[in-house]
Task: inverse folding
């Protein structure tokens, strides 16, 4: 996993998870499931996203349009990397935030809890160009937390008695 000032890129191997920070007699100890990695500082947003490849899964921070990684989204626009799966609580608006990546058709799949203010998102979804997985906000937050902690699955009663529970999938 790599944290890039607002975008957390998920990989199939969650090999760096710090579980507990403990203070003992003035010393700070970290208990971790793997070796500790040093922070990586980039000179530009473009440098920060240069190793993101087509088909990557990105966890994009922010709430609504507040706190989103605008500069990193702008850098992704320049790279033109596509077939992205984006996990975010929203899909931006038509000409701001993730809406810019949607306009260039760089996003193939959205995993999100709210998508109601983006006409291009709606158009792509209804025409079958964009895969969408709507997830309740609390479940989305827990999926992110569990994935970061290396927990492959967890139970939530949210989908009980729904199409998901019956084996169907609300992904179009």
Result:
């Amino acid at each position: 996993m790599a944290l890039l000032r607002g975008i957390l890129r998920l990989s199939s191997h969650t090999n760096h998870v710090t579980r507990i920070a403990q203070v003992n007699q003035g010393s700070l100890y970290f208990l971790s499931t793997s070796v500790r990695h040093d922070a990586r500082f980039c000179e530009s947003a473009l440098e920060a996203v240069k190793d993101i490849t087509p088909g990557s899964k990105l966890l994009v921070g922010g709430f609504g349009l507040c706190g989103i990684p605008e500069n990193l989204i702008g850098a992704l626009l320049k790279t033109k990397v596509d077939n992205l799966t984006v996990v975010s609580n929203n899909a931006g608006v038509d000409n701001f935030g993730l809406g810019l990546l949607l306009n260039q058709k760089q996003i193939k799949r959205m995993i999100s809890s709210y998508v109601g203010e983006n006409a291009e998102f709606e158009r792509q979804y209804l025409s079958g160009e964009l895969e969408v997985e709507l997830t309740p906000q609390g479940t989305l937050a827990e999926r992110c937390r569990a994935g970061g902690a290396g927990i492959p699955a967890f139970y939530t009663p949210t989908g009980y008695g729904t199409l998901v529970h019956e084996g169907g999938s609300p992904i179009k």
In short: The radius of gyration is 18 Å.
